[in-house]
Design brief:
This protein is of the alpha+beta class and about 100 residues long. The protein is built from three helices and four strands; from the N terminus they run βαββααβ. Strands 1-4-2-3 form a four-stranded antiparallel sheet. β2 and β3 form a beta hairpin.
Length: about 100
């Protein structure tokens, strides 16, 4: 059995900080060796906003985009699929709402 991790993803989150999206951007950038095909940041302060894109963190997120992700809580994810299809719909974190 192979003891090496097979996942090629990175996750970074921030809680209770006014620049949560910006900090998450830099955290994901530091994790780029873990993934480079898809990235997503979701921000929340009651309501959530997010952006998903194909490519490197630096290619997907600009300063203007980060300013548009309002909220003091964020979670970000970078992913390398390894095998299979490279589809934007497979980007994490998944977002759902409910009552």
């Amino acid at each position: 059995m192979d003891s090496e991790m097979q996942e090629k993803c990175g996750v970074f989150g921030v809680f209770n900080h006014p620049k949560a999206a910006e900090i998450t951007y830099y955290g994901l950038h530091a994790l780029l060796l873990r993934g480079q095909e898809r990235t997503r940041i979701v921000a929340s302060e009651g309501n959530h906003s997010g952006l998903t894109g194909m490519g490197l963190v630096t290619q997907v997120f600009s300063r203007d985009i980060l300013k548009g992700l309002s909220g003091n809580m964020t979670i970000g994810h970078i992913q390398y699929s390894g095998s299979g299809e490279n589809l934007l719909q497979k980007a994490h974190p998944l977002v759902a709402t409910g009552t």
